[in-house]
Automatic annotation (TrEMBL), chain A:
GO terms for molecular function: hydrolase activity. It comes from the Bacteria. PANTHER family: BLR1149 PROTEIN. Residues 29-129 form the Calcineurin-like phosphoesterase domain. SUPFAM superfamilies: Metallo-dependent phosphatases. This is Calcineurin-like phosphoesterase domain-containing protein.
From TrEMBL, chain B:
The lineage of its organism: Bacteria, Pseudomonadati, Pseudomonadota, Alphaproteobacteria, Rhodobacterales. InterPro entries: ATP-dep_Helicase, DEAD/DEAH_box_helicase_dom, DEXH_lig_assoc, Helicase_ATP-bd, Helicase_C-like, Lhr-like, Lhr-like_DEAD/DEAH_assoc, Lhr_WH_dom. Transmembrane segments: none annotated. PROSITE patterns: HELICASE_ATP_BIND_1 (PS51192), HELICASE_CTER (PS51194). GO terms for molecular function: ATP binding; ATP hydrolysis activity; DNA binding; DNA helicase activity. Residues 1-181 form the Helicase ATP-binding domain. This is ATP-dependent DNA helicase RecQ.
Amino acid sequence: MNGHDFTFADTTLTALGSGALYWRAQELICVSDLHLGKSERRARLGDATLPPYETQDTLSRIEADLHRSGAKTVICLGDSFDDAAAVDAMPEQTKIWITQLQAGRRWIWIEGNHDPGPINLGGTHLAEFKIDNLAFRHIADPHQKNEISGHYHPKVTLATKGRSITRRAFLIDACRVILPAFGTYTGGLRSSHAALQSLMRPDALAVMTGPTPRPVPMPR
Amino acid sequence: MLARSDDPALLLIAPTGGGKTLAGFLPTLVDLATTSRDHDGIHTLYISPLKALAADIKRNLRTPVDEMGLPIRIDDRTGDTPASRKKRQRADPPHILLTTPESLALLTSYEDAPRMFAGLKRVVVDEIHALADSKRGDQLILALSRLQVLCPDMRRVGLSATVEDPSAMARTLACHPDPCEILVADPGPAPDITMLDAVEPPPWAGGGGAYAIPAVMAQIRQHTTTLIFHNTRAQAEIFFHNLWLANSEGLPIGIHHGSLDRQQRERVEAAMQRGELRAIICTGSLDLGIDWGDVDLVIQVGAPKNVKRLVQRIGRANHRYNAPSKAILIPANRFEVVECHAALQAAKDHDLDGDSRGPGPRDVLCQHILIRACAGPFDADQLYREVTTAGPYTALTRAEYDDCLTFCATGGYALRAYDQWQRLLQRPDGQWQLRDPRAAQLIRMNIGTIQDSDKLKVRLRRTRGGKPLGEVEEGFAASLTPGDTFLIGGQIVRYEGLREMTVEVSRERGRKPKVAVFSGTKFATSTQLSHRILRLLAQDDWPDLPDHTRDWLRLQRDISQLPQAGQLLIESFPHNKQEHVVIYGFAGRNAQQTLGLILTKRMEELGLDPLGFVSTDYATLIWGLEPLNDAAPLFTPAALREGLDSWLTGNTLMKRTFRASATIAGLINRNSPQARKSGRQATFSSDILYDTLVKYDPDHLLLQVTREEAMRGLIDFGRIEEMVARVENRIELRRLPRVTPLAAPLFLEAGRTPVDGTAQERLLAEETERLMQAAGLTS
C-alpha cells in the first residue's frame, strides 16, 4: 500500500494516497465525504446538471483500496450521500455494487450534515463510532481528543520551485485527524482557512495525497 | 446575375467592394417590383455571418427600394432583434428577411415553419467564404436542405470573396445532385502592400505592436480613415489604450471588437458611417463586408497568419472597385518580420491558402435532427434523403446517419439508462418525435455551433441597471482580485467583485492596467505560409529584410543552423539550471502545442522529467530536469500516433474539443430555462462525461467526432502528420552550450503549459522535505 504511516494516540495509522485512512491493526479503512448522488441531487433541485457517473468513479476507487488493503471494516465518515433522497434515487445497479462491497465486511455509516438520519442501505448507521481509544465522527469537536473526522474537505497548496501544486490533504495533530474528501465531486477548503486554523494546533502536519502521500507542516 | 436567376444554385465570386451583395438581390428586386403586391410571405431570405452585416444590408437595401418606390418590406432577424418584432415577423413575414444561420435554424424548428416559408423563392448567402469553413456553414446548408423540401423551387445564391478553391465552395452550396454554377468577377487592380519600416526594431517576442505607435499615428494623420486590424481582442485593447495616450491632437479614434457591448459597437459603427472617425482599431469583427465608407488605409498589426484573410482584410480599404487598396503590415516581433515578408510575397503572387475540410461533422447533424424533431414528427428515411442533398453531407452513409439518430434518441449506449438523454421516440407509425414536447424549449435555447469561450458581462458598479461595458472570459475574471485593474473598451477599470454572472467594476483614472488577457481567437499560421517561411529561411541571404532581422538570422546560422523544410531541427541546451529542447516544426501554433503535449508525455516515459512547454507558430520549447541526447525515439510516426491515441484519454484540449462537440450535439446544454450554466460548471461536467465515455463506451458517437475534430482546430494533429511526412526521418539534433538566437524569443512567450508527472512529484518531494527539515521534523 502506498501510504504515509504516522502515530496518533499511540496507534499506527496510514494516510493513503487516495485520501482514505488505513488502520492496519484493526484491518479498517475510513473514507470521508463521498457525496454520492451529487449530480442526481443537483438535477433534482433544478441546478445545472452534472453527468451521473461520479458515483461509479467514487465507488471504484473505494473498491480498489479495499482490494489492496483487504480491510474487514469500512467507516464512511459522514456526508456519504449528498442528501437522503439521493439514496432512494440511486440506480439499482449502484445499490447492488454497494451491497457487494459490504459483503463479508463490517460497514459503518457515520451521519453527516448532508445525510442525517437512517438511510435505506445495509450497514450500521451511527452518529459516531468508538473503537479502542479512537472516536470517529463527521465534524470535529474542538473539545475532544483522539478523534478522526471529515467535513472540511481540507486541501493544501505548496509553492515549489517554478509552480504551485494543490492536493487534497489529511490534517494531523496530537488531538485529531481530519480526512480529505474522497468523493469525486467535492471541492476543497485550504488549510489556511480560519476554521481549520483554529481547529488544528500550531504544530499540525498536513499529508498531501497523490501518487506518493507526503507530509508537510500544515501551511498557515 | 439576371441571366442566371433561374439557376438552382449560383456562386458569385468577387473581391471585397465589388458590389456583389446588391447583385445578389437584383433578381429578387426585379421579381418583387412586379409581384410584391401579390406576394405573400417571405420571397427572399438573406443570410449573413454577422448580425451587424444583416442590419447594414437592411439600411443599404432600403435606399434603392425606396428610391424606386417599391412596396417591398424588408426586415432583419438576429439574436439582437426584440421578441415583439420576432413574433410579428412570424405572424406576418416581410418580403425580404435578413438573418443569420443560427436564427434561421431556430426558425426552421417551429411547427409553423412550412407556413412561414411557403412563398420562399430565393436564398442569398452573403460572405459564404466566412461560413463555409466552419460548422456554422454546415448548419446553414442543412437548414437550406430543409427549406428546399418545403419550397422545391427555391434558388440559392452564394456571394464570396476571393477564395483558393471556388469549386469546393460551389459543391458546399449546391443542392445535390443539382449543379452550382460559378461566376467570377474581375479581381480589380493589385493592392499596394508594404511592411512598416519603423525607426525602432520590433521587440523579440509578444504580439502588441506597441513599438509602432508613433508610426501608426503618423499614418492616421496622413489618411482620411484608417482601419487597424489586430489578431486578438486583448491586443486591440492594449493598442487602443497606447494609441490614445499618443493621440495628442485628440483625433477621433474608435475601437470595435466582439467582446464589446452591442450598444458600444453600434455607436462606433454609426460614427464610422457618418465619416466621423479617423481610425478604428478592430479584430475579426470587422473582417466582413460591412460598408465603412471612405477607408483609404488598412493596417494589419501582427503577422496575418493566413494569406487569404490578409487579402480579404486589405480589400476593406478603398471600396471603389477600380482603385488599388493600400495596406501596411506591422510585424509585432522579430520572427513576424520574416512571416510578414512571406505573407506579402504570397499576396503579390495571389497564392491563397486554405485547408480542405473533410465531410460534414456529425455533431452538427445531431443538432439538426433535434431541431427537425422540434418542428414535428419526421420520417427517418425522408430526413436521410434530405440531409444528403446538403454539400457537406453528400457522402454520409446510412449507418453514420443512424448512429446520429440513435444518439439523439437515447444518448448512446453508455447513457441510455439516463432520463435526461432519452429525447426521441418512434411512434407506432414509424415516425420519430420528441418524447417530451417540453424538450423543444431546451433544444431551441441551445441552437448554434459557435463555441464562445465562456464570457462574463462587465458592468460599472452602482450605476442604475449597471451600464454594460463588454465581456471578459471567465478564466480571466477568475484571475482577478478586487483592486486589480484592466482594460476594456479602451478605459481602465478597477475590479470590485463578481456578482452572479457579472463582473462589477469602477472607473479608474491614470493607472497602468493589469494586462487584459481575454484572448479572442488565436489563429495558427497556415500550412502554405509556413512553407513559404521555410523557403525564405533557406535563402543564402535576405537583402529584402531589415538589418536587425537579417543579422539575427545570420547569427542563428553561425551558432546553430536555420530550420529547413526537408528536415526537423531540434536544439537541446541547458539554461538557468534546467534542460531545454526546441523543436522547430513550423506546424502552426495549435499543432506545436499538441506536439508539446505528446512529446512531454513521451519524455516522461523516457525519464527526462519534463516540467513544461510553450509553443509558437514555428517552434515548441520544452524544459525539464534531464537533457535530451537522442531525439529519434520521440519522433517516429508510430510513437506520435500512439501519443495521440493514449493521450486522447486524458488531455484537457481533447476534453475541450469534446465539450464543443457535446454541446453542439445537445449532450450538454449551455443554456437552460432555469439558469445559464457557467463555463466552469460546463467544463466540470463535460470532463467527467468524457472520462466516463472513454471508459465505458469508447466507440460512442461523440468520441468518434472528437477524434475527427482532433485532426484540425485546437489539436490539429493533421499538421503534425504533415510535418512528419515532410521531414521523414531526417531529424537534426543539435546539442548546444547555451540558448540560440532563434530560441531566445521563446523564453519570453506567454502561455506556458505545465506538465504533471514525475517532475512534479520530484519538486513536491524536494519542497516537502525542505519544509519538514526547516521545521525540525525529519525522521
